[in-house]
Task: inverse folding
């Protein structure tokens, strides 16, 4: 009893500094899919900050994003929602909001001026009808190119800046006995590489237009043809065992020097660190070759169930506050391998790759987001994955056919 | 079904006694019947209803007619999956029946160390499809499996890369599937063979009929019911094949080794296409009924007719 009142007193004391003051210990059940070592370590930073401010954290980890999302939705429909749950921002979350199943965290967001501190595209994605339905905790980048410096030296090539240069370099690497591209042949990884080519060949405006409008004429345009031609030209640079390979195995190929390049999101840094290498040293990072600089952002976010209980609401507000606190942002993102969602957080304690990303994002023109965050329904992004993967793995499909199939898949799924 | 009817026909003075066995039997059946009706037929109907709506993440009852079916039939991946189901079904069932029967015959011919072979062939069955899939994924991976091993032995042009080829990946499913299930088929066939009247063998030996002809023309037709059982068991495995493809190829490369069950689960759980997934599930059900029911009907009628004589 005594212990409880102490906690309550502490909570009251601390929450006085937060907008949502509550008198009781605020309990938040947090449902998430972060079960790997680095993910857990990162989330533990949020947890300890939340508990230090008087909250009680009930951890519900569920392995696998799909499983965790299904569990979150099922529990909501069953009337026993988790207070806070990890979810992908996008069309699905909007659908939940549309059904009135979500709470908003506008009070915290307004007080802390999220509108101006988060990248505008992410603000837009996290809002539904003007309400913040999710708290974005970080920014991952998807258009990274990791490379093994020793392998490049062996073949005598520089880090390529454009796709034609890349193809030249890849040929030399192949001659030198190095696998030019370490690719995990799973649809989502193939899509990440495709998007890098799309951005690199078409440019950032083209990329943004394609995914924000899904316009038929753009999909049938000559620029898109060039994208498919470049993508097809990469096929010979992948080793035979690529199909089905996991992304971290491909990362390890680059770490070992068996493969020269990998196109992957910056979560690969976690694997590089786990392999005993500091990102930016023997394994370097650069943006994928492109005609202009851009950063394809994707975010991890937490959403809040609509619960008619003052304690739970206070806990949700506190969670939103904690997640975007500068100290938590730094501690969390260093462990997660991402960069802070807030662009006003000091960058100097991050690794070289992350610093580069943070510096790049200061220019708003570089802001791009992954397909889902453009509000593309998961049906369409699924169809996109299918058609890219089908094209990539097909031995006899021409770039023209690939482009046409891509266009059709999108128009059927729309 | 036959027993309560007989009970009811029993001559009895006491009406309650005649009524009781039927009543208790029905009582005992109620839970099972409720579960069947609700969970099986109820959910089939619900799935069909959902397939007529535009539901995405959550069930939404805004009806759009057969829109989802139109979308489904325009979907290239769906047709690949259906075609794969046909290929995989034929190869898998055919492979299990042929190899299972041959193994059973070999063992039945009085092979040495019968018990050991039986155990070896049955062992894969103790593994789940997930494990089978992972094992065969390693074996068939060109970089670290069979191809690599043979090449290291000196045959450097040896190729076995089906799992990474779009036009061959579906066949790898049948290889792994047959490997796992052939033991069960063998055991069933062996049980059937052991039930064959030894007098038939004696008679055929007296008549000087070659062994293969006895198997082909006499024993095999007598094993009809066993073949039927094996066919039904294996078809059920084919229709619900999901874990094997997930573990072995992940439906890839591309979606070349996708199966309808995986298509449905993927669309319902990962793509929030509840309506489309439900339409796929319903079409799958109709296909299964269309393919299997004539055979079941044919077999059962034959059996009933046979018993009558």
Result:
């Amino acid at each position: 009893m005594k212990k409880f009142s102490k906690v309550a007193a502490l909570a009251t004391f601390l929450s006085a500094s937060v907008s949502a003051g509550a008198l009781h210990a605020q309990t938040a059940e947090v449902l998430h899919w972060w079960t790997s070592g680095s993910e857990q370590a990162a989330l533990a930073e949020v947890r300890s900050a939340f508990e230090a401010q008087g909250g009680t954290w009930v951890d519900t980890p569920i392995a696998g994003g799909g499983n965790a999302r299904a569990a979150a939705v099922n529990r909501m429909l069953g009337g026993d929602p988790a207070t806070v749950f990890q979810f992908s921002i996008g069309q699905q979350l909007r659908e939940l909001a549309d059904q009135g199943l979500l709470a908003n965290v506008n009070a915290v967001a307004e007080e802390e001026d999220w509108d101006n501190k988060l990248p505008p595209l992410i603000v837009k994605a996290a809002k539904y009808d003007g309400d913040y339905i999710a708290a974005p905790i970080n920014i991952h980048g998807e258009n990274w190119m990791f490379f093994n410096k020793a392998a490049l030296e062996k073949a005598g090539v520089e880090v390529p800046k454009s796709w034609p240069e890349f193809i030249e370099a890849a040929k030399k690497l192949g001659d030198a006995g190095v696998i030019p591209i370490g690719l995990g042949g799973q649809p989502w990884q193939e899509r990440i590489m495709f998007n890098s080519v799309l951005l690199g060949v078409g440019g950032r405006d083209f990329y943004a237009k394609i995914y924000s409008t899904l316009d038929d004429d753009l999909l049938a345009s000559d620029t898109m043809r060039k994208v498919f031609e470049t993508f097809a030209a990469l096929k010979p640079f992948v080793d035979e065992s690529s199909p089905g390979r996991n992304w971290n195995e491909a990362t390890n190929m680059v770490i070992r020097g068996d493969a020269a390049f990998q196109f992957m999101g910056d979560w690969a840094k976690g694997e590089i660190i786990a392999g005993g290498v500091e990102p930016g040293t023997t394994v370097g990072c650069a943006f994928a070759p492109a005609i202009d600089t851009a950063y394809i952002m994707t975010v991890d976010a937490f959403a809040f169930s609509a619960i008619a209980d003052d304690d739970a609401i206070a806990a949700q507000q506190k969670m939103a506050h904690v997640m975007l606190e500068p100290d938590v942002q730094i501690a969390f993102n260093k462990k997660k391998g991402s960069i802070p969602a807030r662009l006003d957080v000091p960058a100097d304690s991050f690794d070289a790759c992350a610093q580069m990303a943070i510096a790049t994002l200061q220019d708003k023109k570089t802001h791009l987001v992954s397909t889902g965050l453009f509000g593309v329904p998961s049906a369409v992004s699924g169809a996109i994955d299918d058609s890219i993967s089908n094209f990539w793995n097909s031995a006899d499909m021409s770039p023209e056919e690939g482009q046409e199939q891509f266009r059709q898949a999108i128009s059927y799924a729309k | 079904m036959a027993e309560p009817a007989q009970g009811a026909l029993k001559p009895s003075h006491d009406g309650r006694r005649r009524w009781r066995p039927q009543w208790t039997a029905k009582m005992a059946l109620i839970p099972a019947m409720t579960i069947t009706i609700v969970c099986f037929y109820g959910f089939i109907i619900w799935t069909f209803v959902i397939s007529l709506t535009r539901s995405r993440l959550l069930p939404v009852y805004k009806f759009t007619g057969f829109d989802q079916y139109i979308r489904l039939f325009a979907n290239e991946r769906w047709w690949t999956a259906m075609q794969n189901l046909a290929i995989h079904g034929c190869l898998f069932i055919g492979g299990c029946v042929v190899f299972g029967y041959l193994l059973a015959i070999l063992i039945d011919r009085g092979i040495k160390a019968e018990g050991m072979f039986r155990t070896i062939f049955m062992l894969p069955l103790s593994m789940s499809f997930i494990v089978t899939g992972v094992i065969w994924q390693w074996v068939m991976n060109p970089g670290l499996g069979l191809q690599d091993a043979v090449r290291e032995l000196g045959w450097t042009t040896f190729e076995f890369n089906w799992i990474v080829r779009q036009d061959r990946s579906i066949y790898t499913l049948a290889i792994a599937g047959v490997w796992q299930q052939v033991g069960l088929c063998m055991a069933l066939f062996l049980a059937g063979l052991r039930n064959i009247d030894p007098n038939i063998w004696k008679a055929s030996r007296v008549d000087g009929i070659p062994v293969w002809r006895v198997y082909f023309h006499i024993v095999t037709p007598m094993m009809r019911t066993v073949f039927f059982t094996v066919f039904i068991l294996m078809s059920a495995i084919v229709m619900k094949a999901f874990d094997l493809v997930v573990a072995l190829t992940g439906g890839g490369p591309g979606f070349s080794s996708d199966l309808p069950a995986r298509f449905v689960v993927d669309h319902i759980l990962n793509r929030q296409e509840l309506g489309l997934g439900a339409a796929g599930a319903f079409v799958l059900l109709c296909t299964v009924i269309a393919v299997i029911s004539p055979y079941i009907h044919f077999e059962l009628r034959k059996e009933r007719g046979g018993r009558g004589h």
User: Anything to note?
Assistant: Confidence is low (pLDDT under 50) at residues 1-5, 7-23 of chain A.
